[in-house]
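Re: beginner question about structure tokens

> Can someone show what the tokenized structure looks like for a real chain? I only ever see the sequence side.

Sure, here's an example I had lying around. Input first:
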Amino acid sequence: MSLKKLSKKPKTSEDCAVSSFEDKMTPMRRFALWIVTIQIVMIIGIMSVYTFQPGWSSTLTAFYATGEAEESYNEVVTYPIILPSLPESYTLVDDDRPYFTFLPNDLSCFTTGTDLMKSSSSPPGSSCTCLADYYGRDCGIPGPVWHACQTLNNCSDLKVRKTPRRLIHGLNINHELEFFQVRLEEVGDVLDVVIVGESNLTAGGDASPLYLLPELRKGFMSGFQHKIIHIFIDHFPPEGLTDGWFADTFIRDYMGQEGLKRIKGIRDDDLFLLLDADEIPDRNVLLFLKLYDGYPEPIALTLRWSIYGFFWKRSVSDSPHVEDVTRIVAISTMRMIRQVYDGKVMSIRRNYLTTEPLLSRVETYKKSGHSVKEWNIGEVGAYAGFHCSWCYSPEGIKLKLMSAQKDDKPRWGDFPDKLDLGYISGLIQNGRWFDNSQPFFLVKPEQDPLYAPAYILKHKNRFHYLLDPPSSNKTTSST
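And the corresponding structure tokens:
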């Protein structure tokens, strides 16, 4: 007997069982077992991402609500946030929707602004017959733009593009979820991509929960999520504690620079639009900018200015019933952002074109054949959009006060009596400011055809706290 045979151990019952099991394992059964194993591993991996990733709504809310977060900007521990339901990048494509109707008499008319029946019977070579508040040979120029181009005496320079521009909209958000929805419902179909910046730190550098991201993950605005680029801002500059402009500039530039990195296919003549969360642009104005050439840049928008709700208008100083408006420089081409603003989108709103170093860049830009002249769209009665400032419930106004920049003096959130919900309700009721002045006057919906954005007017029950003028016998309320 060989040494090999002597060293061989007899089979145990367990060995026999294993051998029997292996004998019964057909190739098909082995394949099925392999597939099941892979599925189990994948399920465990997905659960670990959704359960243990920091930055998710329940974890953040509990973390900040209990005060466990450090308030100092440089001691808040933050981690990358994974966005399983939002695109990490976006590729721009051309908008090929038919905005113009070609009639048998060789007229090309902007469909929305044209009486097509009357236009089709017009003789060849004539102009389209425009509907109310539309102008131009093809009826594609809305009222606010028509007044603006007449001021510059360049309406005849406006020509339809062969390919529409793409509109890239950037904004930062805190708790303004309703206005975020209103914005997308109003102009979301015209915008090509939306970059939204959100931070777990307030504009004053204090810890804060995320309001928008958890709702997006639950499906909020699902019809637009394919074009939303969410930028998580996890740090705050120390200079922002003593310089409010620095803080304001930082959050917008960070949003813009990080967001634009994720967008592919940007062309030089695409437009970037920078607005605040409470500023809603007019859809017709944006669509015009998308479809036409022949105007200068940068572009300013004159917005209707309401306070607390659409019932209070801001008045001009020393003229209690003369309406004031908000005017902001908000739009430029991507070429101008790169070559003049050096990629810093907040420079659009700061508008320092006549000071160095922007002045030298502007001169070089002009020599390349680009028209640089601030063009203001909108006026009283023909607004380019809406600015509803402090338009929240009393609780929302309190949160805004507490989130303000540290250098925003007087910082009303530092005064305990200004945070009282009853006091804030009184301000809304009586149209007073925090310094007890009364720079607002009351308007009524039935007397104002441009009272509020169309989506808000369509959902009056939901937005009644922004639409119904307050009275002495009615408590101001909100959703």
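Each token stands for a local structural state, so reading them left to right follows the chain. The two ends are 92 Å apart (CA to CA).
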